[in-house]
Amino acid sequence: xxxxxxxxxxxxxxxxxxxxxxxxxxxxxxxxxxxxxxxxxxxxxxxxxxxxxxxxxxxxxxxxxxxxxxxxxxxxxxxxxxxxxxxxxxxxxxxxxxxxxxxxxxxxxxxxxxxxxxxxxxxxxxxxxxxxxxxxxxxxxxxxxxxxxxxxxxxxxxxxxxxxxxxxxxxxxxxxxxxxxxxxxxxxxxxxxxxxxxxxxxxxxxxxxxxxxxxxxxxxxxxxxxxxxxxxxxxxxxxxxxxxxxxxxxxxxxxxxxxxxxxxxxxxxxxxxxxxxxxxxxxxxxxxxxxxxxxxxxxxxxx
Length: 303
Known about the structure:
The chain is mainly beta.
């Protein structure tokens, strides 16, 4: 059996192919479509979102991810969405595209609705074996590059009201196998990830709004994780928030929003032993909201 000296790369590869297959955004509450396909088409206008996340600053080869997504209503009861993503962890890169269809069922005349969404996802895994430090640099199994392609799917349900929301979703339904020829490095199956989210707007007065929210993440046959968030918004323009991620990190959020533009920034301060070698994680999100293509008359109950 080949003996590999991967250092931090080994930890990163193990994380990607086991519990941390889907890197969680710290700004998910500003772009809920990222973790639930049923959100597609439920918001006003057409939000086009671009985000960048760099985890564990100070560690070479630490996770980096870029995402571009957009969704919109195409009929009173239907929405669609598209998401592109590219992430790297050490010698591994994962890119992909997600296409979503969602159906909305109105509940009352206050714009409450329950939505169901289904996404088809196509992953491309790329392993740069030449970046690995190995005992035998002439081992043919550890030379060159490898690519693997996997189809997958996600499903979600989402109830939204003007003051609160509740959602649940599951990703990696097919649980395909990611297997490279250098199978001492990476040979594993994709694992289903479950997300449950809820949030509520508490109007203090004309100037201030509190928004407590919760994210519960469960990895099948793996660990679970909870994000408890509290943010305060002033004049519906600027916001500041604080999150606790169970056993993992404290997160500081800053945000700005207008009718067309949303900007968010998050800083994760690790609470685990990794904080001795890392200065934390950074994430930035920019959303531009185009006008909706679907015109609805107020009070028509979308029938």
